[in-house]
Write a structure and sequence with these properties.
Blueprint (H helix, E strand, L loop, with lengths): L1 H16 L9 E3 L5 E3 L18 E3 L20 E3 L21 E3 L7 E2 L12 E3 L7 E2 L12 E3 L21 E3 L10 H4 L7 E3 L7 E2 L12 E3 L7 E2 L12 E3 L10 H4 L7 E3 L7 E2 L12 E3 L8 E2 L12 E3 L22 E3 L20 E3 L5 E2 L5 H16 L7 E2 L5 E6 L2 E6 L5 H4 L3 H46 L7 H14 L12 H5 L32
Parallel strand pairs: 2-3, 3-4, 4-5, 5-7, 6-8, 7-9, 9-10, 10-11, 11-13, 12-14, 13-15, 15-16, 16-18, 17-19, 18-20, 20-21, 21-22, 22-24, 23-25
Antiparallel strand pairs: 1-2, 25-26
């Protein structure tokens, strides 16, 4: 209390005496521009003897530990810089009288928490920089008075999560920087209050997934940075509501599959970075519906081995493509870029390309081509590139108009083997003769091809002769068979008599086994019917109930 009274008395004395005090190592222009700069002045407290009408105070890089009871004297203050001090707490209501303050810089201090009423009274504040502190938590009432705040920088702190209503008063916020914290998920519950947000930076946190409608309500958001997280999953409707998004940085995450469907919702996207992910393959129409895309970065994809030749067919306005540092990517599709009529710049440095052909690039439209540090093989297939490099060198030497196509010719080279050692040579240092295919190699290739053609022709002739002989033999066999077959004339009268005889024969029945005596059946008589009257049927025992057979003589 005594300290407060002492400060108040000093302030009253200053007002009544009509003079102000400018500390040593400070620059005071209090009468004309109302500015005071005390940067690196070794101050331990905020000076209270300055002009009460001052509007700008720079107290950066001092030894100030707090702002208690020292700011109420400067009610006209508009800008206050307290960066790079030793402030560990802001207390409560210490800015209550700075109703005109518009910019406040508290970066690079030792602040660990923002308590309730920490910024009470700052209803006109537009920019608040709290970066590079040790903030772990923000009270739900700490920012309640910042209704005009447009920029909030909380970069390089230790924030893990935010209370659901921490940003409820930040309806005018346009820039929110949360880079390099320890945030585990997108703060959707707080973002719903920021309807005017234009840029959101969540770089370098620990976000693992982006859920559906994570950015719902941010219809004016123009730039979104999610790089440097550990994102593996992106839900189908993760970017729903981002109609105005033009810049998306998704680099250095853990995506293994191109999020084609998710990105297709961003029809106004112009800049996209997917570098540093774990893609192994870019499928056809990988960037579906991104017709307005102009810049694409696909650098440092360590697992990328293949790109479909139709991967960029939807990106008709594409101008700049970067595929640097993809060392596992060795085979460039022949017409990968021929569906992009506005393409001007292609960069494929530090990759694994071994062969290149002129048809792989739209050379008539390109303005810059970067191919440095690829393990290209020195042979006649690179003669077109050698000529482009030397043409550029010639134009530079003559001081004429520069070439329409800019190359990084100083670093473009190819590998040659000398004494079993692979060496990298620059194309600009090689002669045209060294780029041609050796005559010996051409001769060997031609000889091998000739032998193969002759062999294939001989085998074809042999197979054809065998087939012709086999066919001829089959035709002769068929002819002989046809000659041996004589049509037989069938007499209709004989056929009728034969059919009648068959009908009469079918009327006789076969004798049943019991009708013939067993003993007589065993004898081998020449004809049983000739001695039929020999049998005396009356002497033969007849089973009871069995009818006596009646013999009919025909």
């Amino acid at each position: 209390m005594a300290k407060v009274l002492l400060l108040s008395l000093s302030f009253v004395l200053c007002l009544t005496s009509g003079w102000t005090f400018c500390p040593s190592k400070c620059t005071c222009d209090g009468d004309k521009n109302l500015r005071v700069s005390c940067a690196e002045a070794g101050l331990e407290v905020v000076p209270i003897q300055l002009n009460p009408d001052v509007k700008f105070i720079n107290l950066a890089m001092n030894l100030i530990t707090n702002v208690h009871y020292t700011l109420p004297f400067y009610t006209h203050l508009e800008t206050l810089d307290l960066s790079q001090n030793r402030i560990d707490t802001l207390g409560a209501k210490n800015f209550e009288y700075q109703s005109n303050l518009q910019r406040l810089d508290l970066s690079r201090n030792l602040i660990t928490t923002l308590g309730k009423d920490a910024f009470r009274g700052l209803k006109r504040l537009q920019s608040l920089n709290m970066s590079s502190n040790f903030i772990e938590g923000i009270h739900s009432g700490a920012l309640v008075d910042l209704i005009a705040l447009a920029e909030l920088d909380l970069t390089n702190n230790r924030i893990i999560s935010l209370e659901d209503t921490s940003f409820r008063s930040l309806g005018a916020l346009q820039l929110l920087l949360l880079e390099n914290n320890q945030i585990l998920e997108v703060p959707t519950s707080n973002l719903v209050y920021c309807h005017q947000l234009r840029r959101l930076d969540l770089t370098g946190n620990f976000i693992e997934s982006v859920r559906n409608e994570s950015f719902l309500g941010l219809r004016l958001l123009d730039a979104l940075e999610l790089d440097g997280n550990v994102i593996r999953d992106v839900d189908v409707d993760a970017f729903t509501g981002l109609q105005a998004l033009a810049w998306l940085n998704f680099a250095d995450n853990n995506l293994t599959v191109m999020p084609t469907v998710q990105l297709s919702k961003l029809s106004n996207l112009t800049n996209l970075s997917l570098s540093g992910n774990s893609f192994s393959y870019l499928p056809a129409v990988a960037l579906l519906n991104l017709f307005n895309l102009r810049e694409l970065q696909l650098d440092r994809l360590e697992r990328l081995t293949r790109i479909d030749s139709r991967a960029f067919v939807d990106n008709t306005h594409l101008q700049h493509v970067s595929l640097d540092g993809n060392q596992a990517f060795c085979d460039l599709p022949p017409r990968l870029f021929h569906g992009n009529p506005n393409l001007e710049d292609v960069s494929m440095r530090g990759g694994g390309l071994r062969t290149l052909d002129a048809v792989q690039f739209p050379l008539d439209r390109l303005r810059r081509l970067q191919l440095a540090d690829n393990p290209l093989e020195c042979n006649c297939s690179l003669l077109w590139l050698w000529r482009l490099v030397h043409e550029e060198e010639r134009l530079d030497a003559e001081g004429g108009a520069p070439s329409s196509l800019s190359l990084d010719s100083e670093a473009i080279g190819c590998d040659v083997v000398e004494d079993n050692v692979r060496l990298r040579r620059r194309l600009k240092d090689m002669s045209e003769g060294e780029m041609e295919c050796p005559a010996r190699l051409v001769t060997i290739v031609c000889a091998v091809l000739s032998v193969l053609l002759v062999t294939m022709a001989g085998v074809s002739v042999v197979l054809y002769l065998q087939f012709a002989r086999r066919r001829k033999r089959i035709m002769e066999e068929r002819k002989n068979v046809n000659e041996r077959i004589v049509p037989q004339q069938i007499d209709k009268m004989e056929l009728e008599r034969y059919l009648q005889a068959q009908a009469l024969t079918s009327e006789y029945r076969t004798l049943r086994p019991w009708e013939i005596p067993i003993k007589e059946a065993e004898r081998e008589e020449p004809d049983h019917y000739e001695k039929f009257d020999y049998f005396d049927h009356r002497r033969m025992p007849t089973p009871k109930g069995t009818p006596t057979p009646h013999v009919v003589y025909v």
